[in-house]
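Hi F.,

I've been meaning to write this up properly since the lab meeting, where we talked about keeping a consistent format for the predictions we share between groups. The idea is simple: the sequence comes first, exactly as it goes in, then the structure tokens exactly as they come out, then a line or two of notes. No screenshots and no reformatting. I'm using this chain as the first example so we have something concrete to point to.
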Amino acid sequence: MIFQEERKWWKKGYKKIACLDEAGRGPLAGPVVAAAVVINSKVKLKGVKDSKQLSAKKREEVYKLLTSHSSIKWGTGKVSEKVIDRINILEASKLAMRRALKNLKQKPHFLILDGNFKINSDIPQKSIIKADEKVFSCMLASIIAKVTRDKIMERYHKKYPQYDFNKHKGYPTRLHIQLLKKYGPCKIHRKTFSPVASMLKYKNKKY
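Output, unedited:
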């Protein structure tokens, strides 16, 4: 049922619930992006699923609907590959979520996070594994985070066309690995992620 999880907390007096999800924990290149979404039960949306279950075209359509809807409040946060390498991907994901909250136009009363961790915040929160499949508002956050990150990687494709970032978005696909072996890592590759780290180690040993 839509809003099943949200209703439990609305009944407890938390009128503004922000659901948070991130995109980009697994790629070898580019940032991690989080989104925070606040919605109310009066909003009617059809065909919304976890971003991974939607085609790129459908995600873009839903993204445009969400980000232009007057009753949906949202914010995004980004953490670069350099910071990911410095503090690790889990801490970077938490930081992206805190930045998304900061960019939210209103302060929520309660947080629902996709994952098994909590973030540093004075707002009460609950973490749910696979919330992007179970909690409606988290599905919306997953779509906004995914499309926002995809747009960033498409811009990086123009700067580094040899890596085809517009196709794989930095994820470790067979194509990306082949191009990485051919050209070596570029500035937006995550230097602490394998196989990027092993390539850099080999290069340093070689020279």
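Notes:
The chain has nine helices and five strands.
The first strand starts at residue 17 and ends at 23.

If this format works for you, I'll send the rest the same way.

G.
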